[in-house]
Specification:
The complex is a heterodimer of chains A (about 110) and B (about 110). Chain A contains no helices and eleven strands. Chain A is mostly beta strands. By secondary structure, chain B is mainly β. Helix content of chain B is about 0%, strand content about 50%. In chain B, strands 2, 4, 5, 6, 9, 10 and 11 form a seven-stranded mixed sheet that branches. The chains are: A mainly beta (about 110), B mainly beta (about 110). At the A-B interface, strand 4, strand 5 and strand 10 of A face strand 4, strand 5 and strand 9 of B.
Chain lengths: ~110, ~110
């Protein structure tokens, strides 16, 4: 079945860039997402990219997609303490009720 | 703006007891989902629904049942709770929309089974 993998922890200093990586197995993935979960809350969509795109930039966020290697990354520029959260990579295909498959989540620690 | 509302937010059960989690959304979404979140395992899909009166199994459906009698509500039932079902449960909904497929999540329901 489909699988999404990402590292569990990342620690950076305030002001540095953070890069969170993800790999997925479903070659029919059409949509790829990054969701953010703050403590005690549900997930919220941070950004997404279509499978026919290589890059998407949105203010401090840059998403890179290497479809050949099935690799997705999220770069957060000028990381702030408010960026501390769990970041989930997710993918969705076009069939099967549009199920979204999530990775285990990367917990980002930002040190002041 | 209520969005997706889950009740209850916390519950403690004894092994063998039953309970129902209620999810309600006010965005007229077609699709609704129940996920469970466990440390180091991310979110795993339990059951989902693509419309009123329909349900389907996800990755980890055993021990759970669901019903979607009204479009705005999606119920998750545990008939005989087990300690392995201790988890945080999230409900989500989305449009029947191929453009972004964004999921809107509730705040979660923390269930402990003793």
């Amino acid at each position: 079945g489909e699988d999404v993998e990402q590292s569990l922890f990342l620690s950076v200093r305030e002001g540095d860039s953070s890069v969170i990586n993800c790999t997925y197995t479903d070659s029919s993935s059409t949509y790829l997402y990054w969701y953010k979960q703050e403590p005690g809350a549900g997930l919220q969509l941070l950004t997404y990219i279509f499978s026919n795109m290589d890059m998407k930039q949105d203010q401090r966020l840059t998403v890179l997609l290497n479809k050949k290697d099935k690799h997705l990354s999220l770069r957060i520029a000028d990381t702030q303490t408010g960026d501390s959260a769990i970041y989930f990579c997710a993918e969705r295909g076009d069939t099967g009720g549009f199920k979204t498959i999530f990775g285990a989540g990367t917990r980002l620690f930002v040190k002041a | 703006n209520a969005g997706v509302t889950q009740t209850p937010k916390f519950r403690v059960l004894k092994t063998g007891q039953s309970m129902t989690l209620l999810c309600a959304q006010d965005m007229n979404h077609e699709y609704m989902y129940w996920y469970r979140q466990d440390p180091g395992m991310g979110l795993r899909l339990i059951h989902y629904s693509v419309g009123e009166g329909t349900t389907a199994k996800g990755e980890v459906p055993d021990g759970y049942n669901v019903s979607r009698l009204k479009k705005q509500n999606f119920l998750l039932g545990l008939e005989s709770a087990a300690p392995s079902q201790t988890s945080v449960y999230f409900c989500a909904s989305s449009y029947m929309d191929r453009y972004t497929g964004e999921l809107f999540f509730g705040e979660g329901s923390r269930l402990t089974v003793l």
